[in-house]
Amino acid sequence: MTAPATGRVPPRTLPRRTPEVDILVDVLQGERFAGAVILGGPGMGKSSLVQTALEISGRTADVQTVQCSPTLREVPYGALTPLLATLPNLTTPVAVLRALQQFGPNPVIVVVDVQHLDAASAFVLAQLVQNRAATLLTIGTGSLGRESGIAALADTGVLSTIRLEPADLQQVRRQCTGVLGGPLTEAAVRTIRGMTGGNPRLINAYLASAHDQGILVRSPKGAALPGRPAPWMLLRAAPDPDGRLIDTVEAMHDSLLPGERETLDLVALAGWAPRSLLRAVAGEHVHDLLNAGFLRAGESTDTVGLAAAIHAEVLRARIPPGWSFELYKRWHAAGGDASEHRTARSVLWALECGQPVPLSEIMDAGYRALQVKDWPTARAMFPLLSESQDPRAALLVSELMLVGGRTWAASTELEELTVRTTDPNLRLEALSLLALNRVRTGEAPNPWAALPALMAELRERLPQHTVTPASLATMVDMLVNDAVHLHRPELLEQAQLLVDDPETPDFTRAIMLLMQADALAMAGQADVAISAAERAYELASTVPGFSARFGLDALVYLVLAYITAGYTDRAMAVLSDQLSLEPRQWHQRSGTVLVLQHLAETADGTPLQGSTWLEDAVVELRNHDPAQMLPFAEALLAPQRAAVTVGLPSPTAEERAVRIPCGPESRWLWSLALFSIAEDRNPDAAELGPPLWRRILEDPRLEQDPIIRREILLSLILMRDPLDLDEAVVEELHGTATATQGPRSAGIARALDPSLAGDPRGLAEAAEEAAASGAVLPAALCWSRLILLHHRAGDLRRRGEALRRLKHLQGRAGVAFPPYIAGALALGELTAREQEIVDLAAQGLSNAAVAERLFVSQRTVEGHLYRVFTKLGITDRSELRELQF
Predict the structure, then answer these.
(1) How far is Cα 600 from Cα 590, in angstroms, rounded to an integer?
(2) What is the CATH class of 19-163?
(3) What is the pLDDT of residue 546?
(4) Which of 417-426, 470-479, 526-535, 547-556 is predicted least confidently?
(5) Of 328, 537, 117, 798, whose CA–CA distance to 126 is shortest?
(6) Nearest to residue 514, comparing CAs of 528, 496, 526, 532?
(7) Above 70 in pLDDT, residue 789?
């Protein structure tokens, strides 16, 4: 880490030239404005901006500084007192104006914390500005009061207004990279942005504290690809509040009014809070705190929360118990304990203040905290719940122990709860948590794979006369069966009975829906799979208990169902919501979400602007892989790894195949096949028998998952040189795609229709239809087949026409196509010199003019154009315009 030995991060300095600096330099050097108002929250770099502009403009010697404060805002000329301290008492504006002339012609007066400027001083400074007797630079948080004379000058354009907003993701990335001296993962940048609200001062303190506490580290296993620097990553979402963070927050609060500090303390203690309640308890300060960047509005514009999650945690750590209790009494008197205002934080606050809270509310708060991965709040609930004898409280305690790393104690308690409870639904929940724990520890690929072994282990200990609904008992019996994978239709039928039964609890129904979504999506039954996945995802959004346990699984199955069916726009919409999660929840899901984001973005090809999200996902999943997505992520990265690796990768696909499966079996087989296909392109690969991907395609387990077969075959085609393509693979893929549902299968089946193999008109029509519907990959496949058809026939003109259409499709889609399509494009690829000449000729320049521009002979230009005409099958110079992209 590029920091002094003390571990402290160097203070942020604004770049020498930014748009804001340029505006301020223009103010100091020009005649358009008489000064500027610089607004932004504490720590946003306002003082650095002013200092930078003063140095660039050469006016540092002319500066007089006025420091405002809350204590002097009601004292006439209180802010100007330090400037006039050596002069006799001055009580009139005229006398003050004359006294200020001692600083010479047109001084620069910098007013700090202008929001606290007293009215008399504001009037005098406004007069100076209007008379062009001084250049005024004012620095403030939030917004200026409308009664202020400074605000009036800004409104009329006498003063320029510059507002510094919180740093966006790119700015946070640049700041962190500069401080740490190396790149960060996308997940880490987004977590830091969420935890700090983009406040540069908080970011510096956060980085230093996280580094000192050992949670901000370079990836222990290095980068995802060889030759790349190991990125910085976060082992957990936030450091503990320490002296550095507390000092930073207190410094940010120094300029606030008492009522503003009270408002922030209230929001820190209560969580998201209605403005009306905050107004009733602490006065009307929300508007100014929103403008200052301390608060942000919630989904409901009536509620507000702290803009930086770490800010809230630091405030809670420094609020004395006595003051917390006093605020709670006022909060309670204003109606803050009403059910519609309850948050997980407010329930914990009430408990900390010794107030009685029903167990049901405590448990609901605990699950809501787990839902958003608010570990500090969830952990604080633990001792309060441990005192209860309620078995459902014991269930939640076990969940809290699991997330806290006490897996052995939690597993023991869950097993005992499974045996002693008489509630079949509670038993199923306990078993599900045990199954989830085995998934997290790598003992099972998914929860339903873990259930049979668990049931077999515990069945002898279960009471003989356990009352279990018949439908649920049947499902349990089927899951315990060792050959459960051979009875998928019966299992799905029984799951549907449970889903349709109105007596089935939401938790059980959600589990059945997830099972259906997983199996049906891979079986190619897109419509019913998506319906089940959407219902499960809705439950995950509305039932905190289910969300805390299976919310991530619901997300994975829904997005995969959308992508494999061909509804990538729906998948992207769901994933875009994930990018705005609360920072702790984002941190827990980040690796999984980034893999899914990559899969959705690359469904039709790799974006031309490129993306390192998949590499970052692999780095994050190596540390935390809650949905068992790491093998799949590494498989998706395998072609890139093969391109930069000398010799066979380690481990090879064959070595991976003998390991314990990780993740659902269908996804595991898909991953192994992708590894094998990538290795096939390696010259060091030895062919001692059928390749692994072929053995997987012949594996009977894949018969139930035609979508996996489809994707393996499609990857096999797309990763090959088009001139080496095995038509038998094309026919096999066409048959598989024809038998499965969804626009992706329909597009592939149409593009690879064997009847179009020798039909130029049919291929062109299919390409146009696919492109018109937005199906980029099928359209590209059709154009590629048409290019190859004309290439083999030696029809260069028609080949050129198809090449140009494919190139236009690529330009519109903004993607880089995989090797099969890229290989078809390469048949008409222009050299750099040819493209340069084409660009000039297409602008209307003659051959002689092009030759003169490029300092070559006219004969050279003519020769290049002849080769272009031949290569692309064009006969008219006007057609060159089609070659510009």
Answers:
(1) 15
(2) alpha beta
(3) 86
(4) 470-479
(5) 117
(6) 532
(7) yes
Contacts of 154 (CB under 8 A, 6+ apart): 37, 144, 160, 161
First to last CA, the chain: 43
| Pairing between β-strand 135-140 and β-strand 108-112 as defined by DSSP bridges | parallel
User: Helix (H, G, I), strand (E, B), or coil: what is residue 163?
Assistant: strand
Provide CB contacts within 8 A for 634, sequence distance 6+.
224, 618, 671, 675
- Provide the pairing of β-strand 135-140 with 35-39: parallel
**More confident position, 146 or 281:** 281
Domain boundaries, the chain: 19-163, 587-826, 832-883
**812 residue type, one letter:** R
Do 135 and 28 form a contact (C-beta atoms < 8 A)?
yes
Rounded CA separation 112/109 (Å) = 10
Dihedral pair phi/psi, residue 145, rounded to 5°: -65, 145
Q: Where are the alpha helices (DSSP H) in 90-199?
A: 93-100, 119-130, 149-155, 169-180, 186-196
> Which residue is listed with tokens 């499709």?
809
Alpha helix stretches (DSSP H) within 213-257 = 243-253
Model pLDDT, residue 299: 78
Identify whether the C-beta of residue 226 lies closer than 8 Å to the C-beta of residue 643: no
State pLDDT tens for residues 578-588.
988 999 999 99
At 87 the pLDDT is 54
- What is the C-alpha to C-alpha distance for residues 822 and 512, in angstroms, rounded to an integer? 43
Q: How many CB atoms within 10 Å of residue 802?
A: 28
How would residue 469 be classed by pLDDT, with cut points 50, 70 and 90? Answer: low
Say yes or no to pLDDT of 32 above 60: yes
d(CA 357, CA 343): 13
Contact 428, 408 (CB under 8 A): no
Q: How many helices (H) and strands (E) does the chain have?
A: 43, 12
- In three-state secondary structure terms, 623 is helix
User: 245 to each of 214, 317, 373, how far by Cα in Å?
Assistant: 15, 11, 22
Q: Indicate if the alpha-carbon torsion angle 360, 366, 369, 371 is positive or negative.
A: negative
Retrieve residue 732's tokens. Answer: 């096999």
- In this prediction, residue 14 carries a pLDDT of 43
What's the pLDDT score for residue 740? 93
Contact 687, 719 (CB under 8 A): no
Rounded to the nearest 10°, the torsion over CA 428, 431, 436, 440 is 180
Banded model confidence at residue 866, pLDDT cuts 50, 70, 90: confident
The amino acid at 796: L
Query: How far, in Å, CA of 327 to CA of 315, rounded?
Result: 14
Token pair of 850, please?
Answer: 């092009």
- Picking from 483-492, 552-561, 599-608, which range would have the lowest pLDDT averaged per residue? 483-492
**Sign of the CA dihedral running 713, 717, 719, 720:** positive
Whether the bond into 706 is cis, omega within 30 of 0: no
Q: Are 134 and 89 in contact (CB under 8 A)?
A: no
Q: How far apart are CA 764 and CA 766, in angstroms?
A: 5
Tokens of 354: 């010794």
- Mean pLDDT for 416-425 is 83
CA atoms within 13 A on the CB side of 610: 3
Q: Which two tokens stand for residue 183?
A: 């790149």
Residue 484 exposed, middle or buried by CB count within 10 Å (0-12, 13-18, 19+):
middle
Q: Which of 129-138, 207-216, 411-420, 650-659 has the highest mean pLDDT?
A: 207-216
- Fold for 832-883, please state it: Arc Repressor Mutant, subunit A (1.10.10)
Cβ burial of 523 (10 Å; 0-12, 13-18, 19+) is buried
Gyration radius of the chain over CA positions: 33
pLDDT at residue number 294 = 92
**Section 332-352 average pLDDT:** 91
